[in-house]
Amino acid sequence: MIFYFTGTGNSLHAAKTISDAQNEKLLSFPEEFDKAGNSFTYELRDNELLGFVFPVYAWAPPKMVLDFVEKMRITGGKPFVFSICTCGGEEGNTTQLLQKALETKGIILNSAMAVKMPSNYVVGSDVDSKPAEWDLLREADVKLRWFNNVLTKRQSGVFRLIPGTMAALKTAVVNPLFNRYAINTKKFYTTDACNKCGICEKHCPVHTIKIKEKPEWGIACTQCLSCINRCPVQAIQYGKGTVKRGRYTHPDL
């Protein structure tokens, strides 16, 4: 059983790569939250894979991921637990945060990996060049194949992480500021290029976008930037910074 969260496809690709190889069921964090009356209780067998795959947001897991772990309850046997976080550069102490959250539920993280992939955070900087993007994707697939072998053998204690510089400071200080001040919808808007296709509304993980005369944003947001990056006519912007920047989605999308 593999839970995943994705904005523009990197983490979905990673989760699906492992799921296909291991013949494990894929479950989306947002879809689990959407289920009416969900008890967040999951039964697993001894040594069955229990995976968490998600992007890094400001050197920490997305709040939705940590909220899910807080709610979840595992019954049955003792699973083999792993995580994969995808990032555009460094993960900070992302894996450590997840590890601590799992431990409060009595769940031990057996092995984990961070994978550098093309960045989608066009609010902060432009996307990678196409050659750089393809190099990152190829390198990521090599790492995913290697980690899949780790999972097949059920090897515990394998942690291939990318903490980067000042990891503790970034995760402990910058991430809370990001969650408090950066995650908002006030700067989202659409240009006249919008054709009301509805893709942004369909793929918003927190259902904050509603198509009326044009897309309108509510208050809830994860800052996944799925709406900006998936828009086929590049009509969605966030302030002035994204106007001249490219867009990124994983080729699998």
Your description of this structure?
The protein is α/β, with parallel strands linked by helices and 253 residues long. It folds into two domains: 2-174, Flavodoxin domain (Rossmann fold, 3-Layer(aba) Sandwich); 184-238, Alpha-Beta Plaits (2-Layer Sandwich), CATH 3.30.70.20. The protein contains eight helices and twelve strands. It has a six-stranded parallel sheet with strand order 2-1-4-6-7-8. A two-stranded parallel ribbon has the order 3-5. A hairpin with a 3-residue loop joins strand 10 and strand 11 (215-217). Helix 1 (10-22) runs parallel beside helix 5. The two termini are 22 Å apart. The mean pLDDT is 97.
Provide the succession of SSEs.
EHEHEEHEEHEHEHEHEEHE
The CATH top-level class label of the largest domain: Alpha Beta
**Terminus-to-terminus distance:** 22 Å
Specify Rg, calculated over alpha carbons.
18 Å
Number of structurally distinct domains: 2
Uncertain runs are none
* Helix count, DSSP H or I runs of 4 or more residues: 8
Gross CATH architecture of the largest domain: 3-Layer(aba) Sandwich
Given helix and strand content, the structural type is alpha/beta
The fourth-level CATH homologous superfamily of the largest domain is Flavodoxin domain
